[in-house]
Amino acid sequence: MPENTGPAGAPLDDDARAALEELGEIRGSIDNIDAALVHLLAERFKFTQSVGRLKAAHGLPAADPERERRQILRLRALAEESRLDPAFAEKFLNFIVAEVIHHHTRIAEDQGASTSAVAPEDGGPTA
């Protein structure tokens, strides 16, 4: 699209061109935040994978409802302080927690399969 026309091909005045330029800058900031969120989630999941391996090694359940309850309360308060809808923050956390529990369950199943396939005394992995 030429610089002097809008999405419909109509000519743009100076105000519209300035608005489109500002829109591009704002969207660039959003893109940067989205990239940071993905990197932060990747880091978070590295830690939750460690938690999952530790839980599996010690026969602990994948879910921890009391921890989840405390986290929801904490994140709702943080959301309110940050002027973010607490209900949205709770939904977001619930989505992440569901994925974490799924990962923990899978880790426990994998560790159970690998530890039962070769006993430790036979040189296999230890739980």
Give the strand content: under 5%
The helix count comes to: 3
| Overall radius of gyration | 24 Å
Average the pLDDT over all residues and give the rounded result.
87
**What's the story with the biggest beta sheet?**
none
Shape field: elongated
Protein name: Chorismate mutase
Domain Chorismate mutase: 17-108
Keywords: Isomerase
Region (Disordered): 108-127
What features would you describe in this structure?
- The chain has 127 residues and is mainly α.
- It has one domain: Chorismate Mutase Domain, subunit A (Up-down Bundle).
- Helix content is 73%, strand content 0%.
- It has 3 helices and no strands.
- It has helices spanning 14-57, 65-81, 86-117.
- Helix 1 (14-57) packs parallel to helix 3 and helix 2 (65-81) runs antiparallel to helix 3 (86-117).
- The longest helix is centred in the first third of the chain and has 44 residues, at 14-57.
- The protein is elongated, with a radius of gyration of 24 Å.
- It starts with 13 loop residues before the first helix and ends in a 10-residue tail after the last helix.
- Residues 115-127 have low confidence and may be disordered.
- One of its GO terms (molecular function) is chorismate mutase activity.
- This is Chorismate mutase.
- Residues 17-108 form the Chorismate mutase domain.
Short structural summary:
This protein has 127 residues and is mainly alpha-helical. Helices cover 73% and strands 0% of the residues.
